[in-house]
Design brief:
Blueprint lengths: L7 E5 L4 H12 L3 E6 L9 E5 L14 E4 L6 H6 L1 H19 L7 E7 L21 H20 L3 E6 L1 E3 L8 H11 L5 E5 L2 E2 L1 E3 H14 L2 E5 L5 E2 H12 L4 E5 L12 H4 L9 H10 L2
Parallel strand pairs: 1-2, 1-4, 2-3, 4-5, 5-6, 6-11, 7-10, 8-13
Antiparallel strand pairs: 9-12
Helix pairs in contact: 1-6, 3-4, 5-7, 7-9
């Protein structure tokens, strides 16, 4: 991707799972990267660290050509534990960041990372034009962020894209994400025992595919894009796949869930940009387990 060579790029949420992988990829592609973080880190080469809080500090980011906005309180549990912080970071922080690039003559694309959870439970597969009705507070804050981004696009003609990302998995991912949680539960359960998982489906997409998807959207996209595998997989199937790989006989039972019961994205729009997922779930899970 010679496209990114020497491009001035800002990444918020640069220490998170997506952000850290995105920063690494951009540096590998010779982009001029600035990572906005909350704690001191040592800059090197094409990677510079900037300390700040997007929900409190007034920045001027008009020098950047591409802004990837990933900073957020992520996940249902964390947002429920501190709703005020989630609202401040996910909603107010997004508006502060948009203010920092408003009127920029350099900005070529502002990429906002949202979640497939904004769709809630409805007809599947969900398309970008599908109705949004988030069930959980996390998704509600991300949808508020989307609306602010679209409002700034309309008022100030900002070049924006929104990526609604489904359930990510990959090496190095930490709890309480779904796949690490399932792996931990299986590893801690004695052979012949049983585990219980949610009776739900998800669209699992690898971190490597998410990164190439975000870069594709940034380079070629306009508007809102679903970013997922385009396949629906039950959580029980994921658990059974891991059990089979570890050759550990366990019984998998399902229980009803309060959150989204299904997630299945239509990825036709991002496919039209030339992006397709590379990793199959079985291969991705095997890679994670081999590096445990």
């Amino acid at each position: 991707m010679i496209f990114w060579k020497n491009k001035k790029v800002l990444v918020t949420g640069a220490t998170g799972f997506i952000g850290s992988n995105l920063v690494k990829k951009l540096v590998d592609l010779d982009a001029d990267v600035t990572a906005l973080v909350r704690n001191q880190r040592v800059s090197s080469g094409n990677l510079k660290y900037l300390i700040g809080d997007i929900s409190k500090d007034n920045f001027n980011f008009k020098e950047f050509e591409y802004v990837f906005h990933l900073a957020a309180i992520v996940g249902v549990v964390k947002c429920n534990e501190d709703a005020e912080l989630a609202e401040r970071i996910n909603v107010k922080g997004t508006q502060f960041l948009l203010e920092s690039v408003k009127g920029s003559e350099n900005l070529k694309k502002f990429i906002y990372t949202s979640t497939a959870n904004v769709y809630g439970n409805q007809a599947f597969p969900t398309r970008e034009t599908s109705h949004t009705e988030p069930i959980d507070f996390y998704a509600q804050t991300k949808l508020k962020g989307e609306r602010i981004v679209l409002d700034y696009q309309g008022k100030y003609n900002l070049p924006i894209t929104i990526a609604r990302i489904s359930n990510i998995y990959g090496a190095g991912q930490k709890l309480p994400a779904a796949v690490p949680n399932i792996i931990k539960t299986i590893q801690e359960t004695e052979e012949g025992g049983e585990i219980t998982v949610g009776k739900a489906t998800r669209d699992f997409v690898s971190i490597e595919d998410v990164i190439t998807g975000l870069l594709t959207i940034a380079e070629k996209g306009e508007g809102i894009y679903n970013l997922g595998s385009g396949k629906e997989t039950s959580i029980k199937t994921v658990a059974q796949t891991i059990i089979n790989y570890l050759n550990k006989p366990l019984i998998v039972r399902e229980k009803p869930v309060k959150e989204m019961k299904r997630c299945f994205l239509d990825t036709t729009k991002i496919n039209s940009l030339g992006w397709f997922p590379h990793w199959k779930l079985e291969e991705g899970l095997k890679q994670i387990l081999e590096n445990e």
